[in-house]
User: Which sequence fits this backbone?
């Protein structure tokens, strides 16, 4: 069973957008921004299914905020073959949305829609738009077809071109700890949240990150109940987890920041602040220009943990 068939904590945003849709006032260009892993993609798919399945069997339940797994549009969107749906994700190897992806999207929106219904374009991680793809997208959203809806997802830790942002209505999504706990427990089908190490759960971490953290600890036979952020990172470096295709790699920037946050609070000295600023810039360069990650982690391990 898909664990994303239900949403938690976004009722106010959902009800507002669906109300606009029913009044035929749904904005055709929106940005959903929020912390990485907060559930922006899941929320988007619930909005999309509510619209697409309106006149179908097993349609979306707007009251319980639940997708019916038997719904035809849900199955087509899940397989990325729905005739009125187009999705763009960043290239994981390059952390980049390339202009060819935008060109294919433009070709899609210029064709007639199936059954004269809305076409929906979902673009994840718009912070990875480069200069050329941003400009190509800008031309499409400045004067969009009235039957096309653009849903752009932005991880709020990053920036996006003002020219793109200014042409969209932005909804800033956030979750309180109550819903984060509910999502984590729902995913694992047990009351697991309260057992997570205080080094992690006592800070605002998205449910996706906590789920990845627990799955990683279970796979590596680590004690997620008691592990410290220092020991977690040392394990990550020593076993070169960054070389594997593990979901924890998507969250490692946060764990590095959490490590420094703890040190800054405890030590309050300029040396640790300088190290944070240095490695934060280095990490951003590595990510932006797809540089060698291993040299970054070796240097971090050497300078921060004093280990070769």
Assistant:
């Amino acid at each position: 069973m898909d664990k994303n068939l239900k949403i938690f904590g976004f009722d106010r945003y959902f009800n507002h957008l669906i109300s606009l849709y029913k009044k035929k006032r749904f904005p055709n260009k929106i940005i959903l921004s929020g912390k990485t892993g907060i559930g922006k993609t899941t929320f988007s798919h619930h909005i999309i299914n509510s619209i697409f399945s309106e006149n179908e069997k097993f349609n979306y339940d707007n009251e319980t905020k639940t997708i019916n797994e038997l719904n035809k549009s849900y199955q087509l969107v899940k397989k990325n073959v729905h005739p009125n749906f187009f999705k763009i994700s960043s290239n994981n190897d390059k952390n980049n949305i390339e202009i060819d992806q935008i060109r294919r999207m433009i070709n899609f929106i210029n064709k007639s829609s199936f059954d004269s219904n809305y076409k929906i374009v979902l673009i994840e991680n718009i912070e990875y738009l480069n200069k050329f793809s941003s400009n190509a997208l800008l031309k499409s959203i400045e004067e969009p077809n009235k039957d096309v809806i653009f849903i752009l997802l932005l991880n709020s830790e990053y920036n996006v071109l003002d020219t793109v942002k200014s042409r969209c209505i932005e909804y800033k999504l956030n979750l309180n700890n109550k819903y984060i706990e509910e999502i984590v427990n729902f995913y694992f089908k047990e009351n697991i949240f309260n057992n997570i190490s205080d080094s992690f759960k006592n800070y605002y971490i998205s449910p996706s990150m906590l789920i990845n953290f627990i799955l990683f600890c279970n796979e590596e036979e680590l004690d997620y109940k008691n592990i410290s952020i220092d020991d977690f990172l040392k394990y990550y470096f020593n076993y070169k987890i960054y070389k594997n295709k593990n979901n924890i790699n998507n969250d490692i920037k946060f764990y590095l920041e959490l490590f420094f946050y703890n040190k800054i609070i405890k030590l309050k000295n300029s040396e640790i602040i300088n190290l944070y600023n240095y490695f934060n810039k280095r990490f951003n360069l590595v990510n932006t220009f797809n540089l060698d990650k291993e040299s970054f982690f070796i240097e971090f391990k050497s300078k921060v943990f004093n280990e070769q």
Summary: The first strand starts at residue 29 and ends at 34. The mean pLDDT is 91.
